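As agreed, record passed on underneath.
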Amino acid sequence: MRKLLTTALCLAATVTATGCGATVEKPADTKSSAVTLTNCGREVTYEKVPERVVTNDVGITELMFALGLEDRMAGFAMPDDKGDLTDVPWKDGYDKVKWLSKDQLTKENVLDARADLVFAGWNYGFREDGGFTPDALKKLDVPSYVLTESCRNGRTKSSRGIMPPLDALYADLTNLGKLFGVEQRAATLIADFEKQVAEVRAKAPTGADRPRVFLYDSGQDQPFTSGRYAAPEQIISEAGGINVMHDVQDSWTTVGWESVVERDPDVIVICDYGDVSAEQKKEFLLSYAPLRNVSAVRHKRIFVLDYVDLVESPRNPSAIARLGTYLRTVAEKR
């Protein structure tokens, strides 16, 4: 793993211009006093407001865009697959910020960009192999901020996730708002996101009506999926479904097809990214003999979400709403 619409339009205006009665904050002066944040359980002090942030991956980059902080960015790294940008209010950010790499960030492109902050995450840029870590950047006098979804939690050396993904999203928006002096903008985003998720939750199936959902990322010999500690767990549950791999105490992980068959999901959600298209993944699932008696395959109940919908990003609430609509339809027809 590398790795709304009236509401959305109003949100876009709130973030990027004066609209819907909102007053847009002016980002903090770069000479403002130091800011101390809690990031991944540690207090981190930033001596000044960053002016040349570089980000890794689409969800992390769009956290900056959603807060209207394009002018504080020196560039981003990510592959081509940003997903469907049609209804993304902050999509113009991609035209304003330099695309540094279609791979992951490196020390070289961080230094070339004269970055004064690297915003990335474990498995979303930060990695022990290659030595691209917050500690390594510190030795280069480059501060960093770690995506909260990816914080290492101590279950194993590399396990991630210290809080539910929506809480992680709100924590990062709050921290970034404080760091860049756009706290009201962050609070408005969080309030809008919480309202949208609450509206989905209020209409979601309950009890035995909740569809069982399997998240399919990739893999044919063995499927790569989401356990209880990755973002899809909460995205599925808030939408009114049950992650059939809830009992797997891991984040993104490989399981066996026999466990999918045993749990008999009503719906399969495809994570769309990479060289294998969502349509190719769907064709594989529908033709893979061991799955022929699985309810989702028999009834062809397959729903597609973009990669960025399924990792911490400001697109999470929209993904919950779209999946929620689909799961309600499934529940009504069963």
